[in-house]
């Protein structure tokens, strides 16, 4: 199995959920995406995000894509570690 390619994209789903007092389960129900798939995204293990998914997340979280995703040129995200600072 090939090793995951490192990247410097950070997902700030934890931060947005905390700011809105929302759980991953609540977000899952409102967006129509499984908790498992949202967890993969939240933990920085997603390899891609569909624009339709990004649109639904932004609608439910009342945010812009830049609030949810950022680029950190300081270094690659650890494939199994946190998706960025909280």
UniProtKB/TrEMBL annotation:
Gene3D superfamilies xref list? lambda repressor-like DNA-binding domains (1.10.260.40)
A GO molecular function for this record?
A: DNA binding
What is the species listed in this Swiss-Prot or TrEMBL entry? Answer: Streptomyces candidus
Protein name, as recorded = Putative transcriptional regulator
Q: In what residue span(s) does the HTH cro/C1-type domain sit?
A: 13-68
- Entry-linked SMART domains: HTH_XRE
Q: Note the InterPro entries from the entry.
A: Cro/C1-type_HTH, Lambda_DNA-bd_dom_sf
């Amino acid at each position: 199995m090939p090793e995951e390619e490192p990247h410097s994209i950070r997902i700030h789903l934890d931060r947005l959920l905390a700011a809105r007092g929302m759980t991953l389960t609540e977000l899952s129900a409102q967006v129509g995406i499984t908790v498992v798939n949202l967890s993969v995204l939240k933990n920085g293990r997603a390899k891609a995000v569909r624009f339709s998914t990004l649109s639904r997340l932004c609608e439910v979280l009342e945010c812009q894509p830049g609030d949810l995703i950022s680029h950190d040129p300081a270094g690659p995200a650890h494939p199994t570690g946190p998706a960025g600072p909280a």
